[in-house]
Amino acid sequence: VLRDGRGRKISGRKHTLDYLFEFLDAYDFGSERNTDKGLVRHESKTLINASVLGLIFEKINGYKDGSFFTPGYITQYICQETLRKAVVDKFNKKKGWNCSDFEDLKEHVDYGKREVRTEANEIINSLKICDPAVGSGHFLVSALNELIAIKSELGVLQDRQPQPQRIMDYEVRVELDELVITNEDGESYKYDPSSTTSQRIQETLFEEKRSIIENCLFGVDLNPKSVEICRLRLWIELLKNAYYYKDETGARQ
C-alpha cells in the first residue's frame, strides 16, 4: 500500500504505529470514488469528505443495529428521479400547468423575470423531505445538492440581494454525489474572496444550503447518535461554502 516518492512500493519491516501513521497519511480521504462504475476523481482537498464520516460511523455501529451504508451513486440517483418529479408536480399544482417532465418544465419557467425566479424558488423551497431512517444523513445530503442543481438547471438560482440577480455563466450540477460548479469554459469554480463574482457565488450557495437545511430537510432515527452525525454531516456540507465578509473597519473576517 505504501509507496515512495517515485511511486514504488515500500517493502521491509516497520513498527506497527509507524506503519499505521504512514498509511493514514498516505490515504486521500477527500478523493471521490465510485468503484462500481469505474469512476475516480482525485482533487486536492484539505477536509475529509462528509461521506467518509458517514461510512466510518455506519461501519463501526452497523453490526449493532443492522445499519447499511448506502453508496453515493444510489442516493444521488434516487434523489434525482424523485425530487425532479416532485418539483414538476409542485409547479403543475401551483401554476396550473401540465408539464410532463423536468425538461418540459424548463421550457415553461421564464427565468429572465425576477418575480418568476423568486416565485420558482418559493415553490421549490416548499418541498419537505423526511428520511425515516436517516442514519448518517446520506440521503439528506444528496437531496440538498440535488435541489440546488435543480434551481441552477431551471435558471432560477439567484443571490440574496434586495434586487436578486441570477447566477449566470456558471453551471451547478451533481457529480459523484457532490456539487460541481463550472464556468462556460468548463473550468471548476474556486472561491476567491478578492473576486466580486466569486464572493457572490459563494454567498449564494451558502445561503441556499442554509435555507434548505433549515426548512426542507428532516430525518428520524432510532439511534440518537445517528441524528447527531446527520446534523454534523449537514453542517460540513454547509461549511464547504463558508465565506469571508468585511466588518465595519473593512477587515476581512
Task: Describe, in short, the structure shown.
Residues 1-48 form the DUF7814 domain. This protein has 253 residues and is mainly alpha-helical.
Features:
mainly alpha, site-specific DNA-methyltransferase (adenine-specific) activity, two-stranded antiparallel sheet, methyltransferase, site-specific DNA-methyltransferase (adenine-specific), globular, transferase, 253 residues, EC 2.1.1.72
**Overall pLDDT metric:** 84
The profile of the biggest β sheet is: 2 strands, antiparallel
**How many separate structural domains?**
1
Tally of DSSP helical segments: 8
Strand content: 5-15%
Keywords: Methyltransferase, Transferase
Catalytic activity: a 2'-deoxyadenosine in DNA + S-adenosyl-L-methionine = an N(6)-methyl-2'-deoxyadenosine in DNA + S-adenosyl-L-homocysteine + H(+)
EC number: 2.1.1.72
Protein name: site-specific DNA-methyltransferase (adenine-specific)
Question: How would you describe this structure to a colleague?
Answer:
By secondary structure, the chain is mainly alpha-helical. The chain has one domain (30-239). The protein is 49% helix and 9% strand. It has helices at residues 16-26, 50-65, 72-95, 102-108, 114-125, 138-154, 196-215, 224-239; strands at 32-34, 39-41, 129-131, 170-175, 178-183, 217-219. It has a two-stranded antiparallel ribbon with strand order 1-2. It has a two-stranded parallel ribbon with strand order 3-6. A hairpin with a 2-residue loop joins strand 4 (170-175) and strand 5 (178-183). The chain is globular. Residues 32-46 have low confidence and may be disordered.
